[in-house]
Amino acid sequence: MNNLIAFVEIPTENFDRAVSFYGKVFGWSLNSMDFGTEKMAMLPDNAGAISQAPGFKPAANGVLVSFTTSDMDGTLEKIAKHGGTVVKPRTAIEREEGGYFATFTDCEGNQLGLFES
Predict the structure, then answer these.
(1) What is the model's pLDDT at position 2?
(2) Which 8-state DSSP code applies to residue 43?
(3) Residue 40: beta bridge partners?
(4) What is the DSSP letter of 1?
(5) In this model, does residue 74 exceed pLDDT 70?
(6) What angle do CA 20, 21, 25 make, to 5 degrees?
(7) CA–CA separation, 30 and 16 (whole Å)
(8) The whole model's pTM is what?
(9) Most buried of 61, 78, 90, 95 (most Cβ within 10 A)?
(10) Do residues 52 and 38 touch, judged by C-beta distance below 8 A?
(11) Angle subtended at Cα 116 by Cα 28 and Cα 48, rounded to the nearest 5 degrees
């Protein structure tokens, strides 16, 4: 087993706004596809997609997906600048390996996390 998580989909109601948000916050170039009733913008390395489809709604409660960042403070600033909200600021992880985590809501209302080693 290479990766435990095979694919992640981040729901959106305003597709263009969400694609812009993730591109600006993380510097990702996202390849968008339109399938009529469904739109997808592929995340780097095809790890997942920003998705818009009937019945697929953003949510603040549920599974928490965290993205790796090498600049937690800079990423949190970009999140706030581009329409997201910091929910839990940079917080030290109390374990031997250490690192930091934070949580935020994106411009659509999905709650996600950040991890910095």
Answers:
(1) 60
(2) P
(3) 33, 51
(4) -
(5) yes
(6) 115
(7) 11
(8) 0.90
(9) 78
(10) yes
(11) 40
